[in-house]
Design a protein that fits this description.
The protein is an alpha+beta fold. It has one domain: Alpha-Beta Plaits (2-Layer Sandwich), CATH 3.30.70. It is built from three helices and four strands. The strands form two sheets. Strands 1-4 form a two-stranded antiparallel ribbon. A two-stranded antiparallel sheet has the order 2-3.
Amino acid sequence: MTYVVTENCIKCKYTDCVEVCPVDCFHEGPNFLVIDPDECIDCTLCEPECPAEAIFAEDDVPEGQEQFIELNAELAREWPVITQKKDPLPDAEQWDGVKDKLKYLER
């Protein structure tokens, strides 16, 4: 099993999760992070660190967000690894909790 970054990360991109990852499985896009399922060791350290509560175990991905399982795998192959915490996006607090953000995902 792996962990999955879901919709609430879009346009927030808090990176608190990145610092605690022991295997560097996070990848960074313009306004979203993803987890590489081939690298994730299911250590659970990232999930409680996410201020946006956007990280879930694959089996616990919220209903209607199952497409993020494949999206994480796809984008992890394209985006670079991120290993150090950065500032969130400038308007992250305003986007935290907004529904239907998939249309805003920048690739």
